[in-house]
Amino acid sequence: MRPFLVVILAALALATTLSLYRVLHGPTLFDRLTGIGLLGTKTIVLLLLMGASTGHLDVFLDIALSYGLISFLGFLALAKYFEGRGGGEERR
């Protein structure tokens, strides 16, 4: 693999770890929802990088588009569910 892709993948892994921390330890519900959205976006970027590195970008592009649509719809469903629960502050 090219050194440039290795650096990009390492930066992506670090950003994913920080997003996962936000999902697990977010002080509010909106922080956690934002972290979930970020994880979905980073997964799409990872899929596209995998496609570029293997030479099968067309296949991975279809997978990334499908995953992005499903991730977006799931994110909207979660946001709607939590909106119905009342507010963005966690109940303790």
Task: Describe this structure as you would to a colleague.
The chain is mostly helical and 92 residues long. It contains three helices and no strands. Helix 1 runs antiparallel to helix 2 (29-54) and helix 2 runs antiparallel to helix 3 (57-85). The longest helix has 29 residues, at 57-85. The radius of gyration is 16 Å and the shape is flat. The model has no long low-confidence stretch (mean pLDDT 86).
Topology diagram in text:
Elements: H1 3-25, H2 29-54, H3 57-85
Helix pairs in contact: 1-2, 2-3
Question: Short summary of the structure?
Answer:
With 92 residues, this protein is mainly alpha-helical.
Biggest sheet overview: none
**Average pLDDT reading:** 86
Order of helices and strands: HHH
Number of DSSP helical runs: 3
Helix fraction, binned, reads over 70%
- Based on CA atoms alone, the radius of gyration comes out at 16 Å
Q: Tell me the number of strands.
A: 0
pLDDT below 50 for ≥5 consecutive residues: which ranges? none
Secondary structural class: mainly alpha
Report the sheet-strand fraction: under 5%
